[in-house]
Write a structure and sequence with these properties.
The complex is a heterodimer of chains A (903) and B (168). With 903 residues, chain A is mainly alpha-helical. Chain A has 33 helices and 11 strands. In chain A, the strands form 4 sheets. Chain A has a 3-stranded antiparallel sheet. In chain A, strands 6-8-7 form a 3-stranded antiparallel sheet. In chain A, helix 10 crosses helix 12 and helix 28 packs across helix 29. The termini of chain A are far apart. Chain B is α+β, with helices and mostly antiparallel strands. The N terminus of chain B is likely disordered. The chains are: A mainly alpha (903), B alpha+beta (168). The interface between A and B is medium-sized, with 20 and 27 residues. Chain A: Belongs to the cullin family. Chain A: Keywords: Cell cycle, Cell division, Mitosis, Ubl conjugation pathway.
C-alpha cells in the first residue's frame, strides 16, 4: 500500500483493500437452506435460518471490527513504521466490537476464531513484517562488549514501543467491553472467574506477544549480553576494574547513582516486554557468579601484607552488605519471587565466596610460603578456607603440585629447599597447629631432601654456625649454610619435658580433636620446632654417622676454646633423638675438651719450652721459626693445634682423639720439621706416663700452626697455616753447614729447592708439596727461579719485585682453590670410595659370581649389610663402580640396571 | 684394619647368632681383602647364615677350568661346629656322592674353630686334585681314578654342568 492509496482509503473505504474482509458487503450472504426445507422462502423461519442470520451478522461485524483494529502497515519506504493511520471509531465499529466481544457474536466454544485470537495473530504478523528485521539487525552479529548496553537499551525501547502500539487498541477498544461485561456480571456472580475475565484475556494476549518477542531474539546471545551488562554494572557499582580482556578502555567511573538507575530502568523495561523471567534470572545468576569471581581477584581482597590480617571478614561483609543488596535490587526489578535474600542463601554465598577466595589463595600458596611471615594474612585466609569441605584435599593436591614444579627440581639448591621447607613448617603450623596437613604436604619434600647428598651436611653445619658473627654474604642462596636453620638454632631450646600426654590433659581448655583427616595412627609430634623436623629426616643411624663426620671436622677447626655451640648442638640432638646413639659424638667432644687439660698438664709437668728446643738461628738470616704443634691421638690419631706465643721456642699443643669414635680423618704422611718431631716425641713420652698404656699416633696432616719468618729485611708472622705448609717452608731453611756456606756464597740468594727434592726430604706427596709452594708464592715468600725450582725472596724490594707480585697473585688464586679441595680434615665420601674401590670391586665380583645377575639396588643393599665398617654409598656409586668394571671387561650390563659377570 | 679388628673383637662378647654373623662378616671381609684365584664366596642374603661359593677346578687335574658351585650353611654354633658344605654342581669325584655330599675330614671330626670359609674352600679345591681314595663315597670314581684316567675324565665331563645349565 503506498501512501496515496492510504489517503484514498481513509476517505473512501475500499473494503477490497483489506484482507480482513471476508465477503463483499454488497452481496450479503443469505444463508443456505437446510436439506429438506424449501428453498429461498424468506418466510421459512427455522433454526438454521437463525444461525445463518447470525453468521452473516457476525461476518459483517467481524469485518468492521477487524478493519478498525487492524494494525497499520509500514510504508513501503520503511519509514514511519508505527505511525499508521487509525480509522475513526464509529458507532458501527462500536456495535461490531460489542457484538463480537460480549454480544451474540461472541463464541466461547472455540469453534470460531475470536476477535482476540485474530488480534494476536495480527500483532504477530505485524511484528514479523515490521519489527523483526530491525531486531535482527541489532542482534545479527555478536554483540561487542562496549555495545552491550546500547543494544540492550535499543531492543528494550523498540519492543516497548511495539508493545504499546499493540496493546493500545486492545486497551482502548476491547477491554472496556470486557470490563463492562464483568461489571454487569459481577453483580450477580462476583467470583474469581468473572473478575479476571479481562485480565485473563489481556494476560493471554500478552503472553503470546511476549513469546513472539522472545523468539525474535537470538536467545543465547541475548542472555549473554544481558549477563555481561549486569556484570559490567556490578563491576562499576563496586568499582572492580577487571582488566583481563585488555580491550576494555578504562572508563572514568560512572556516577554510581546514574548507573544504578540505568540498570534498574533497563531491567524493568526488559521485564515489561517479557524478556525477564527465567532467562533473565539465569543471565543474572551468571553475571553475579562472575562478579563474585572478579571481586575475589580484585584489589579489594588482595593479601594484606601490611597488617597481616585475614581479609575473610571483609569478604563476608561485602557479600552481606554489597552483594546481597544488589541481588535483591535486581530480583525486585525482575519481579522474582521471593525478592529478598534468605539468610541461608546469604550464608551459602559467603561460603561460596570464601571457597573461591581460598582456591585463589591456595593457587599461589607457594609464593606465600616463600614470603612467610609477611604473608601471614594470606595464610590466615587459607586457614578460614580450610573449614570449607573439600578444602584440605584441594590444598594438599594443589600445593604438592606447586612444590614438585617449583621446588623439587635439580635447579634448586639444597639450602634453598631447606629454607623453603622451614617456611612451610612455620606457615603450616599457623595453618593447622595439629600438623596433619604439614605431614601430608611435607612428605615429598622430606623424601627429596633425603636423596640429596648434601642435606645432612648443610643442616649440621648450619646448626653449628653462629648467626651473630657471620657476615650476611655467607647465607646467600648458593651458600652451603642456611640462615634459617642457624637462626632456629639461636632460639632457646623448646621445652620438651611436658611428658604428659596432651590428649589426656583434662584441664586443657583449648583442647581440640584431631582433624577428621588424620589417620588413626597419627601422633602429633611432641616437639614442634623446626630443628626437630630436620633432624628426623633420616634414620637415626644415618644421621648420626653424618653428624660424626661433620662434628669431627668442626671440632678440629673450632676456635672456641669452650666448644659452647658444639655442646649445645649435641644436647639439642640428644633431646630429640635420645642420647643412647650419640656416644661417639660425646666422646669426640670430650676428647677435645680433655685435650686442653692434658696439654696443660703436660706443659706444666714438662720442659717443653726448655732452651734446647730452640731453633738454631744464625746471625744472618735467623730463619723462620715454625712454632706449631702437631698432635697426637690416643691409640691412633693425632691432630695438632698451634699454641705458642714465644717467638723463640716452638710449642706444641695436641688434640687427643679416640680413633675408634672419630670418623676417618685425613692421614697424609710426611715429615714435620725436626724441631717439631722432637717435641712430639717428648709429648708422647709424657702422655704415656700420664695415660698409662695408651699410645699416641701423630696425624700430621691435621692441625695448624703459627710461624714467624725472618727475612733479610723483614719479619712476618703467619697464623693458622697447615702443617704441610710449615714443613715445606721449613725445608727452605738451610739444613746443614754446607747449606749455610752456600747461602753465604750466593749472597742472599737463599736456598733453592726443587719439587723432587722436597718430596724426598719431606716424604710428602707431590700434590701437597705443590699446594704448599703455591701458598708461599702467593705470600711472596718463594719465587720460582727455574721450572719447579724455588728460592726464598729475602728482600722484598728487589728488582724482580714486579714479577714476583704477578706470580704471587696467580699463585694465590691457585692456592686458594687447592686449599678448598684440601680443606676438610675428615675424609670425604669420594676419597673413601677411591681408597676402598678395590675391596668394593672384589665384593661386587664375588657377589655376582655366586649370586648370579643382580640389579644395582640389590647390590648396593647387600654391600651396605655385608661390608664391615659400613658402606656409606648409594646405588649411584655402585653404578659408577660397575661401569668402571665394565670398562675393564669384568662385568656386563643386562639392561634395566641388572648386572652380571662377563663370561 | 685396626678398626675393624677391634670391632670384631668387641662383637665376640655378644651372644647368639649375631656373634656368628659378625664372625662371618669378618671372614667375608678377609676374603675380599685377600682375593684368592679360583675361589669366591658370598652370602645369599642379609642374615649371612647361607653362602654360595664358587671354586674353579685346579689346573692339570680332570677338573681343569670347570666351575663348581657349593652351598655352605652355618649353624648357630659356628665356628665351634663345621659348616654344612654341599656341591651344587653335579660332580664326579671319589669323595663326593651323587647328591653332592662331601666326605672330608676337616668338615667332620677334624674341624677346628681356627678354620674358616676360605680354608675350607682351599681344602676342597685341593681335594679335587687329590682325592682320598681310602674312604670313597663313589667307589666307581675311586676305581677309575686309579685305573683309567681317560674314563674318569669322560665321566667328569659328562656329569658336570655349567652354572647356566644349573640355574635352568
Amino acid at each position: 500500500m503506498d501512501h496515496a492509496t492510504l489517503v484514498f482509503a481513509s476517505v473512501f473505504p475500499v473494503p477490497s483493500l483489506s484482507h480482513t474482509t471476508p465477503t463483499p458487503i454488497a452481496t450479503p450472504e443469505l444463508g443456505y437452506t437446510a436439506p429438506g426445507s424449501s428453498f429461498g422462502s424468506p418466510f421459512v423461519t427455522n433454526v438454521s435460518g437463525a444461525q445463518a442470520h447470525r453468521a452473516v451478522k457476525r461476518n459483517i461485524a467481524w469485518s468492521t471490527a477487524t478493519r478498525f483494529l487492524s494494525l497499520p502497515r509500514p510504508a513501503a519506504s520503511g519509514t514511519g513504521v508505527f505511525e499508521g493511520v487509525r480509522l475513526p471509531k464509529t458507532a458501527e465499529v462500536e456495535q461490531a466490537l460489542h457484538y463480537l466481544l460480549v454480544g451474540e457474536g461472541r463464541s466461547d466454544d472455540g469453534q470460531e476464531e475470536t476477535l482476540l485470537d485474530w488480534y494476536t495473530n495480527e500483532a504477530r504478523l505485524h511484528f514479523a513484517i515490521t519489527v523483526r528485521p530491525i531486531l535482527e539487525e541489532y542482534w545479527r552479529r555478536e554483540v561487542g562488549l562496549q555495545r552491550a548496553w546500547a543494544v540492550l537499551d535499543d531492543t528494550q525501547r523498540l519492543l516497548e514501543q511495539v508493545q504499546d502500539l499493540y496493546t493500545q487498541p486492545l486497551a482502548d477498544h476491547v477491554l472496556p467491553f470486557l470490563h463492562n461485561a464483568n461489571d454487569s456480571a459481577s453483580a450477580i456472580r462476583p467470583n474469581r472467574h468473572t473478575r479476571s475475565e479481562g485480565e485473563a484475556v489481556l494476560s493471554r494476549y500478552q503472553r503470546d506477544v511476549h513469546a513472539v518477542f522472545a523468539h525474535s531474539l537470538p536467545q543465547q546471545r541475548f542472555s549473554k549480553t544481558l549477563s555481561y551488562a549486569l556484570y559490567d554494572a556490578g563491576c562499576k557499582l563496586f568499582r572492580i576494574y577487571a582488566r583481563q580482556d585488555g580491550t576494555q578502555p578504562k572508563l572514568p567511573p560512572d556516577n554510581a547513582r546514574e548507573l544504578r538507575k540505568h540498570m534498574i530502568d533497563l531491567l524493568q523495561g526488559i521485564e515489561r516486554v517479557g524478556l525477564g523471567g527465567d532467562k533473565a534470572q539465569k543471565a543474572f545468576a551468571h553475571a553475579m557468579n562472575k562478579l563474585m569471581d572478579s571481586f575475589i581477584t580484585s584489589h579489594y581482597v588482595k593479601v594484606d601484607w601490611y597488617s597481616k590480617k585475614s581479609i575473610v571478614p571483609h569478604l563476608r561483609m561485602w557479600v552481606r552488605d554489597g552483594f546481597c543488596p544488589l541481588v535483591e535490587l535486581v530480583m525486585e526489578c525482575l519481579r522474582c519471587d521471593p525478592s529478598s535474600v534468605q539468610p541461608t542463601e546469604l550464608h551459602q554465598w559467603q561460603e561460596m565466596a570464601l571457597s573461591r577466595l581460598g582456591r585463589a589463595r591456595v593457587d599461589s600458596l607457594f609464593d606465600f610460603v616463600i614470603n612467610w611471615d609477611k604473608s601471614l594474612g594470606a595464610i590466615l585466609d587459607i586457614k578460614e578456607y580450610l573449614k570449607v569441605s573439600g578444602a584440605k584435599q584441594y590444598l594438599t593436591s594443589g600445593f604438592s603440585q606447586q612444590i614438585s614444579r617449583r621446588l623439587l627440581h635439580p635447579g634448586a639448591t639444597t639450602t634453598y629447599i631447606l629454607n623453603v621447607y622451614i617456611s612451610i613448617i612455620r606457615a603450616f603450623h599457623e595453618l593447622e597447629p595439629k600438623g596433619v596437613l604439614l605431614e601430608r604436604v611435607a612428605r615429598p619434600i622430606r623424601r627429596y631432601l633425603k636423596e640429596r647428598e648434601d642435606t645432612a651436611r648443610i643442616i649440621i653445619s648450619s646448626l653449628l654456625t653462629d648467626i651473630n658473627d657471620e657476615t650476611e654474604s655467607r647465607f646467600s642462596l648458593q651458600s652451603e649454610l642456611s640462615y634459617e636453620i642457624a637462626s632456629e638454632m639461636a632460639k632457646p631450646i623448646a621445652s620438651v619435658n611436658n611428658d604428659a600426654d596432651e590428649e589426656l590433659n583434662w584441664n586443657d581448655m583449648n583442647w581440640q580433636p584431631l582433624p577428621t583427616d588424620a589417620s588413626p595412627e597419627y601422633k602429633k609430634s611432641k616437639v614442634e620446632d623446626v630443628i626437630w623436623f630436620l633432624l628426623t629426616l633420616w634414620d637415626r643411624e644415618d644421621f648420626i654417622n653424618e653428624l660424626k663426620n661433620i662434628l669431627g671436622d668442626h671440632l678440629l677447626r673450632s676456635q672456641d676454646p669452650e666448644y659452647e655451640r658444639e655442646i649445645r648442638l649435641l644436647e639439642l640432638i640428644k633431646v630429640r633423638l635420645g642420647d643412647d646413639k650419640l656416644q661417639a659424638c660425646e666422646v669426640m667432644l670430650r676428647d677435645v675438651l680433655d685435650s686442653k687439660r692434658i696439654n696443660a698438664t703436660i706443659r706444666a709437668a714438662g720442659s717443653l719450652q726448655t732452651p734446647d728446643k730452640r731453633l738454631p738461628s744464625t746471625p744472618e738470616n735467623a730463619p723462620r721459626r715454625p712454632k706449631r704443634g702437631t698432635a697426637n691421638a690416643t691409640p691412633n690419631l693425632g691432630v695438632s693445634t698451634p699454641v705458642s706465643k714465644t717467638p723463640q721456642a716452638p710449642t706444641l699443643n695436641a688434640q687427643i682423639l679416640s680413633s675408634f669414635f672419630w670418623p676417618l680423618l685425613r692421614d697424609d704422611e710426611f715429615l714435620v720439621p725436626p724441631e717439631i718431631q722432637t717435641l712430639q716425641r717428648e709429648y708422647e713420652s709424657r702422655f704415656e706416663r700420664i695415660k698409662g698404656m695408651r699410645k699416641l699416633r701423630w696425624m700430621n696432616a691435621l692441625g695448624g700452626g703459627t710461624i714467624a719468618l725472618d727475612f733479610d729485611d723483614r719479619t712476618e708472622e703467619y697464623t693458622d697455616i697447615t702443617p704441610w705448609q710449615v714443613s715445606v717452608i721449613h725445608a727452605f731453611q738451610p739444613q746443614s753447614v754446607e747449606d749455610w756456606a752456600s747461602k753465604k756464597g750466593k749472597k742472599g740468594g737463599g736456598v733453592a729447592r726443587n719439587i723432587k727434592q722436597l718430596e724426598e726430604m719431606l716424604e710428602m706427596d707431590e700434590q701437597l708439596v705443590r699446594q704448599a709452594i703455591a701458598f708461599w708464592i702467593g705470600k711472596s715468600v718463594l719465587r720460582e727461579t727455574h721450572p719447579d725450582t724455588y728460592t726464598i725472596i729475602e728482600r722484598a724490594s728487589s728488582a724482580e719485585n714486579a714479577k714476583d707480585e704477578e706470580a704471587a697473585a696467580a699463585a694465590q688464586e691457585l692456592a686458594e682453590v687447592q686449599a678448598q679441595q684440601q680443606a676438610g680434615a675428615v675424609k670425604s665420601q669420594s676419597d673413601l670410595l677411591n681408597e676402598k674401590k678395590d675391596i668394593y670391586m672384589t665384593f661386587i665380583m664375588q657377589m655376582l659370581t655366586n649370586q648370579g645377575n643382580l640389579p644395582v639396588q640389590r647390590i648396593a643393599m647387600m654391600m651396605r649389610i655385608m661390608v664391615l665398617g659400613g658402606f656409606p654409598f648409594g646405588a649411584e656409586e655402585v653404578k659408577g663402580l660397575l661401569q668402571e668394571m665394565e670398562g675393564e671387561g669384568k662385568v656386563i650390563s643386562f639392561g634395566g640396571d641388572v648386572w652380571g659377570i662377563q663370561k | 684394619m685396626a678398626l675393624s679388628a677391634t670391632r670384631g673383637a668387641n662383637g665376640s662378647n655378644a651372644s647368639g647368632s649375631s656373634t656368628v654373623a659378625q664372625r662371618l662378616q669378618k671372614e667375608l671381609m678377609d676374603i675380599m681383602m685377600n682375593p684368592t684365584a679360583g675361589i669366591t664366596a658370598f652370602p645369599d642374603d642379609e642374615n649371612m647364615m647361607c653362602w654360595t661359593a664358587t671354586i674353579l677346578g685346579p689346573d692339570s687335574t680332570p677338573y681343569e677350568s670347570l666351575i663348581f658351585k657349593l652351598s655352605m650353611e652355618f649353624g648357630a654354633t659356628y665356628p665351634y661346629e663345621p659348616p654344612t658344605v654341599v656341591f651344587k654342581t653335579p660332580i664326579y669325584h671319589p669323595n663326593v656322592d651323587m647328591s653332592g655330599r662331601i666326605c672330608l675330614d676337616i668338615l667332620k671330626d677334624k674341624w677346628s674353630a681356627g678354620l674358616s670359609v676360605l680354608s675350607v674352600l682351599l681344602s676342597l679345591q685341593s681335594l679335587l686334585g687329590e682325592p682320598n681314595n681310602a674312604s670313597p663315597l663313589n667307589g666307581q670314581a675311586a676305581e677309575f681314578w686309579d685305573t683309567d684316567p681317560a674314563a674318569f675324565k669322560r665321566h667328569v665331563l659328562a656329569r658336570h654342568k655349567a652354572p647356566e645349565e644349573l640355574d635352568a
